[in-house]
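Hi again,

Forgot to attach this to my earlier email, sorry! This is the prediction with magnesium ion bound. I've pasted everything inline since the attachment limit keeps bouncing my files.
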Amino acid sequence: MSILEMRGITKRFPGVVALSDVNLAVRAGEIHAICGENGAGKSTLMKVLSGVYPHGDYEGAIHFEGGERHFKGIHDSEEAGIIIIHQELALVPLLSIAENIFLGNEPANALGVIDWFAAYAKTQELLKKVGLNEKPGTLITDIGVGKQQLVEIAKALSKKVKLLILDEPTASLNETDSDKLLNLLMGLREQGITCIIISHKLNEISKVADSITVIRDGSTVRSFDCRTETISEDQIIQAMVGREMADRYPKRDENRKVGETVFEIRDWKVYHPEHTDRLFIKGVNLHAKRGEIVGISGLMGAGRTELAMSIFGRSWGRKITGEVLIDGKPADVSTIQKAVDLGLAYVTEDRKGYGLVLGNDIRANSTLANLEGVSSAGVIDEGKEFSVATAFRGKLRIRCSSVNQQVVNLSGGNQQKVVLAKWLFANPEVLILDEPTRGIDVGAKFEIYSLMAELAASGKCVVMISSEMPELLGMCDRIYVMNEGRFVGEFTGAEASQEKIMRSIVTAGGQ
Ligand SMILES: Nc1ncnc2c1ncn2[C@@H]1O[C@H](COP(=O)(O)OP(=O)(O)OP(=O)(O)O)[C@@H](O)[C@H]1O
Ligand SMILES: [Mg+2]
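Structure tokens for the complex follow:
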């Protein structure tokens, strides 16, 4: 029996029809996956369901537990037992776990005073349910994203959830944390809680989903029932992109040659910015040649992002020592501007924090790192800017009404593509990519891989940090393995395997 039916949902934004006559039926007690390309309308559909876009703001009907519902806001849908965990987590970093769980919902005693003793006890119970071994008083900022996701779920459980919606919950989690989360969802299913999950990680969908709805360009294109038939990843992909995708990775020239070393790091040491006596990056040596795609693999917390940031304009860390060489010459990359001028670019995994000016349009964001490239006599030429941004929009398949659209209104994956456009336009000699395909759909991933291969083929060098081992193995000529602030292994693309990489991490950890 269906617990939820969304019928004929249409949702418009100025100039965009984000959803057009979408239908969704979810059975009670199942895990229902929603798949679709970036900008297909997945998050919007869930925002309609949870009252973020209230009744009257969309066309169509929502039936939940047998009756039609007219949610006026998120509070209404929560009352009904529908809880959404958004794509961008919404916890307050400087408050404790308990405070976050009970924010706006604090248990009060007879005098109306918040009963923190009760809140802590309840938090402890909830944390146990989600398998999180932390104290209620621990600050959110002191735990990783994996644990923060679990806190979000604990918070949902504190509200008597019937239908739990998770929008890309594992996008920034490593494999272990993702597994933990998926197991927890399967546990909740046992208890009769219905769940809707949005994810671009199709292997996860295959693992947990009982049914799948695929959305393309704002319309429902297919539903699969995984209980009655076995659904392959290729079938899902085909429904998502509307064509068959033969390969996940572009073919690279078999006879490609690598050139001279263009980028080198020698004995790079960095101390932690707050715990200043803690050596965090412990003497890293790296080199990369023209034409090469070099990967850096490692577990979450290995120090890969910190390494890249400390190099790129010393954006992270203290007491930095060591040498950076570009084309064999010592390079001063001590500010971001200097690094960019020397041909270095760093595409960050954190698009909100460092990558984009959200209040600006796609056009201005795409050209931000190379204003000279769109200026005549020192003045920005808007026409040029427009054509550059439009070209990238085509190349990366950025889904938007026009490049004059503000990036804040783009879907998560499309924002990531704008960050990439910005740094590609800077035309760097060395491009460091940090989790470049996080939250990106399979089709667009292929486009990004193709651009990386093109860059390398044109004699540039690409350094890719990634937690997704298959993409490192699929794309890299050479892979470094990082663990606890040092490089503990190095493999050529041909000899590398998931197992060898994991083994070098484990052996290093045991020393
Ligand atoms: N507030 C808004 N104003 C204008 N357009 C919007 C707004 N929110 C979403 N859109 C547009 O609606 C479409 C659907 O966006 P949505 O965020 O639902 O995509 P998605 O399927 O969740 O994609 P992703 O996988 O990248 O997260 C996109 O074209 C997006 O640009
Ligand atoms: Mg989304």
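The mean pLDDT is 90. The CA atoms of residues 145 and 173 lie 7 Å apart.

That should be everything now.

G.
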